[in-house]
Every structure is written in structure tokens, then in C-alpha cells.
Specification:
Layout: E1 3-7, H1 23-32, E2 34-38, H2 40-84, H3 86-97, E3 100-104, H4 120-131, E4 139-143, E5 148-156, H5 163-166, H6 175-184, E6 198-207, H7 208-213
Antiparallel strand pairs: 1-2, 3-6, 4-5, 5-6
Helix pairs in contact: 2-3, 2-6
Protein name: DUF3365 domain-containing protein
Domain Tll0287-like: 54-207
């Protein structure tokens, strides 16, 4: 199926009595009208590129804010930051782009990060790949009758920076930090990680209409 996108060249003119648009102006409008037929494959490719860009943007904003929180308050400050500020940051990114964005993990810190039924098989595939040293590429698929795309991308522990909150609770997480984690996240499953471990995945619901708008 093909979709039609029409970009109109806007004309500003006064509406005084007897005024008309000249043939030259009318012809210029027709010349500047761009008609482009988009295939499903083109829209899907654009959604994949856009999903990667948005998830990278969100990751950058979180890391930047988290780095500042650690500088200001140490690992305990990072725990407080994630508890209060992480979701609003993702909400702002999603609202700005007209999408839904979240992180999902079976080793969640917040119960709200548990995978949905749609996310479970994808996350399990990423987990299988991680256990067998197979690279995990971003994934995109149609959901909700084909009018929405679900874009996912694996999240891994990039370096020692993360282990002060997600590492070995007996040797890498300080007692003070562990106390804060237990107080704020009584169901926490996000410790015991090593560098390179799968932390979870980005999950973006991208309406097809938003993709088409940007093409």
C-alpha cells in the first residue's frame, strides 16, 4: 500500500474587495506542490532511523543528568535522581516527538519497567543473544493493526561508571548506596551486573502518522 504526502506552498495575500490571485502566482503554487508516494518499506526504514535517533537522544540526556547528579551527591544522588527525574525526562522526549518511550527490563529497578506482553519476546531474544555472545541489532515491527511501530534497542552496561549502583552489592556498591536502593526500590533486581551485561532495552511506540509527517 502506498501513502500520499502533499506539501502545500502557502500564499499570503490581502482579501480586499475585487483582488484576485494572478495566473503567475497560481502557476507558482502548482510548481511548488510536491507529491511523493511512500512505500511501506520506506516508512518502516524512516521509523527505524528515527527510533535510533530518539533513543540515542534520550540516552544522552539521561547520562548527562545522571553524571551531574553523581558529581553533586555521589551514587546516592544518582539513585535519588533516577527515582524522581528519569521518567519525566523520558516523558519530555516522548512528548516532543509524538511517541511513547520507556525502558524495559526483566532485571528491573522500578516495577514499572517490567516488560509488557509485546515487549517480552523481544527482550528474551536480546537476553538469549547476550548469553550466547551474539550481537543484538535494533528491532522494529508493526503493532496495533499496523498503524504503530514498536522500535526496540538493547541497553548494555557500558563501563565501571554504572557499577556503583548496578554492580556487585558486596564489593562494588557501598553500604550507604545499597541502603538507599533498598529504601527506594524494595523490589530491586538491578544489581549484580558486570560491564557489557544486558541491562534491558529501549522501547518506543512510534505512530506511523508521525513518521509520514517527517518524510
Amino acid at each position: 500500500m502506498k501513502y500520499l504526502v502533499v506539501v502545500f506552498c502557502m500564499i499570503l495575500f490581502s482579501c480586499g474587495s475585487g483582488e484576485r490571485v494572478s495566473k503567475e502566482v497560481f502557476d507558482e503554487v502548482n510548481k511548488n506542490m510536491e507529491v511523493k508516494r511512500l512505500t511501506e518499506a520506506e516508512i518502516l526504514q524512516k521509523a527505524m532511523i528515527w527510533g535510533d535517533s530518539i533513543s540515542t537522544q534520550a540516552q544522552g540526556q539521561l547520562v548527562s543528568a545522571l553524571t551531574k547528579a553523581i558529581a553533586d551527591g555521589g551514587p546516592e544522588g544518582a539513585i535519588e535522581f533516577c527515582n524522581v527525574k528519569a521518567l519525566p525526562i523520558l516523558g519530555e522526549v516522548g512528548e516532543a516527538n509524538g511517541i511513547e518511550i520507556r525502558r524495559a527490563s526483566n532485571r528491573f529497578r522500578k516495577p514499572s519497567d517490567k516488560p509488557t506482553e509485546q515487549e517480552k519476546p523481544i527482550l528474551e531474544a536480546y537476553e538469549y543473544n547476550a548469553e550466547n555472545n551474539i550481537a543484538s541489532d535494533p528491532n522494529i515491527q508493526k503493532i496495533e493493526g499496523g498503524e504503530t511501530y514498536l522500535y526496540t534497542k538493547a541497553i548494555v552496561i557500558p563501563g565501571a561508571f554504572c557499577l556503583s549502583c548496578h554492580g556487585d552489592p558486596t564489593s562494588e556498591i557501598s553500604p550507604k548506596t545499597l541502603e538507599k536502593i533498598n529504601a527506594l526500590y524494595p523490589e530491586d533486581k538491578a544489581t549484580g551486573h558486570r560491564i557489557g551485561d544486558l541491562r534491558g532495552m529501549w522501547s518506543l511506540k512510534i505512530p506511523k502518522s508521525e513518521v509520514v509527517k517527517r518524510m
